[in-house]
Backbone:
């Protein structure tokens, strides 16, 4: 999760790499990342994912789940919504004025 959605949902300890924050990091090789799952074999592992940290702990390494971090995210602050740029429901897209 990046800082914008974390801030939107009031998750003050997520979205940034800094002391005291819950660090969720994926180390990957962009030249090798590939999804191998299919409809017939949906649990095939992706390639190119080297290491995953969840809450600062190794959760995935050497193509194996090391531990399941399983944390429940609870907002710490009221949810701050971005201004809504969508037209009101009563207006169709064809009636919307260009911005």
Residues:
């Amino acid at each position: 999760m990046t800082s914008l959605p974390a801030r939107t949902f009031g998750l003050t300890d997520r979205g940034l790499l800094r002391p005291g924050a819950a660090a969720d990091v994926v180390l990957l090789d962009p030249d090798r990342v590939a999804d191998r799952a299919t409809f017939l074999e949906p649990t095939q592992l992706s390639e190119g994912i080297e290491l995953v940290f969840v809450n600062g702990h190794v959760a995935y390494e050497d193509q194996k789940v090391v531990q399941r971090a399983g944390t429940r995210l609870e907002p710490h602050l009221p949810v701050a919504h971005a201004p809504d740029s969508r037209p009101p429901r009563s207006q169709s897209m064809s009636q919307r004025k260009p911005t």
